[in-house]
Amino acid sequence: MTTLEEVRQQMEAAGAARVDLHVSDLFGRWHRFSIPAARLTPELVARGLGFDGSSLRGLQPIEESDMLLVPDLGTAVIDPTQDPPALSVICDIADSISGQRSARDPRGIAARAEEYLRGTGIADTAYFGPELEFFVFDEVRYQQVANTGFYYVDSAEGHWNTGRDEQPNRGAKVPPKSGYAPTAPFDRLAPLRWAIADALTAVGQPVEVHHHEVASGGQCEIATRFDSLLRKADQVQWYRYLVRNVARAHGQVATFMPKPLGGDNGSGMHTHQSLWKDSLPLFHDPNGYAGLSQTARWYLGGLLRHAPALLAICAPTTNSYRRLVPGFEAPVHLAYSARNRSAAVRIPTVEEQPAAKRLEFRSPDGMSNPYLAFPAMLMAGLDGIRQRIDPGDPVDRNIYELSAADAARIPHTPATLPAALDALEADRAFLQEGGVFPAEVIDTWIALKRAEVQEVETRPTPAEYEAYFNG
Q1: Among 187, 341, 431, 443, which residue is least crowded by beta carbons within 10 Å?
Q2: Residue 341 falls in the annotated catalytic set
C-alpha cells in the first residue's frame, strides 16, 4: 500500500509541484483534473475531489452528476511528457453522498472482475498482455458537415508518395502489406518508437520489443510485458496517452483507429491471457493440444461461444468492422489453433515453459476500453470453465485459403457493430455474474453505441459518391 508520504517523497525527488488526476469515461477516454501539489492532502485522498460525472460519456445522469475522484496512490508516477514535472494519479469514482464506489466506474468493473475471479476459487490472478498496434501519420485532416465530408492522412513513407515531389524524392516507401519489421531507410519511425519506449519504461512498463508493422503509412507496435488485469488496464491507458503525446512532441500524430487506410492492414489489440492460482499457471498441460490444460480449453470454449457479444465491447466502433472482414487480414473465424494467425484464438508456441502458456484472442482492437474489455474476456472464459464448454477441434489450416463451403462451416465474428450489439443484448448474463457488469452499464453502453451507429449511418461517405452520384 503506497502512502501519501511516499508519494510526496516521489514528487520532491522529481521536483514536481503539480498533480494530475486521471479518470476514464465509459468509452475509455482519459480525462484529467489538475491540482497544486499542496491540495493532495490526507483529506482529499480519503474523500476525493468533486467533479461533474454527467460531463463524462456514459458515467452519470445529470440528476446524479456530483461525483468524487478518489486517487489510487498505488498508481502514482511522474508523467514523462510534462515539463515542469507533474505527478499523475489514476482515480476511482465514488458517489458524493454515500462515498461508495460508483457502479458505473469502468475501473471499478475491472476491480470487481478480479474480486469475482478470486471468489470462484478457480484462480486468484488473471494475466493480460495486449499487443496494441497503431499508425503514426505526418498529417491528418477530416471533416463531416452537411455539404462535405472527407478524410486525408499522409505519411512520408506511404506507398502513395512514390511520385511526390520531395525535392528530391529518394524513394524508400513501404509497399502495401509489406511493412513488417523492415530496416532503415524504409522504417523511418524507429527513433520515435524508442522515445515512446523510454516513456513507457519511465512509468513502469517494461518494453519487450518494438517494430514496424505490416501496413504502409506508419503502422507500429511496441510490446510491453503482461500484468494482472487491473494493472494492465491502467497501463493500456498510459500506453495510449504516451503514444499520442510523444508522437505529437515529434511533430507527428498517432491513432489507434482500427482501419484508417483502405486496402492495407488495420490495427488490432491481440490480447494474451492466462489464469494462475497460488503462483502456479493453470493453462499448461504437456500432454494437451499445443500444451493446453483442460481448464484452458474450457476457458477457450467460453471465449469462442461469447465472442459475438464480446466484440460489442472489444471491437466497439463502426470502423472496427472495416478491419474484421472475411478473407482480408483480420481473424474473423471463431476457431482456435496453435501458431495459426488466421484463427480468432491462437495458442502461441514460441516459448515452452509452463509459465508462458496462454491464449491470444486476436479480434479486439485498441479503441476498446481496457477496463471493460479485459473483464469481459475474463468473464467469458470463466463461464466456459463453469459450464465446461468444449471448444471443438482446432483448425490447423490457413482459414483464409479454405473453400467458401469449408469456411462457411466455421462460425465468424459479427459483420457490423449493430450485429455485435444485437449479440450482446441476447448474450449478457455471463457478464452480470457476481455483479461484475451492472445491468445499467450494459444498457447504457448499448444505447450510446446504437446512437453512434445511427450518426455514422445517416451520413453519406466519399465512397457512396463515387459509386452512386452518376449511377
Answers
A1: 443
A2: yes
HEC secondary structure over 249-274 = HCCCEEECCCCCCCCCCCCCEEEEEE
Cα 20 to chain centroid distance, Å, stands at 22
Query: Is 466 assigned a catalytic role?
Result: no
Looking at 133, 227, 234, 383, which residue is catalytic?
Answer: 133
Residue 329 pLDDT grade (very low, low, confident, very high; cuts 50, 70, 90): low
362 tagged catalytic? yes
- The C-alpha cell at 303 is 471465449
Please say if 64 is a catalytic residue. Answer: no
450 labelled catalytic: no
pLDDT digits (tens, 9 = 90+) for 110-150: 999 999 999 999 999 999 999 999 999 999 999 999 999 99
Reported as a pLDDT band with limits 50, 70 and 90, residue 327 is low
Catalytic residue flag (residue 270): yes
Q: Which of 79, 105, 114, 131 is catalytic?
A: 131
Residue 166 annotated in active site: no
Spell out the domains of the chain, with CATH numbers in brackets: 4-102 (3.10.20.70), 125-461 (3.30.590.10)
Give me the catalytic one of 25, 92, 329, 360. 360
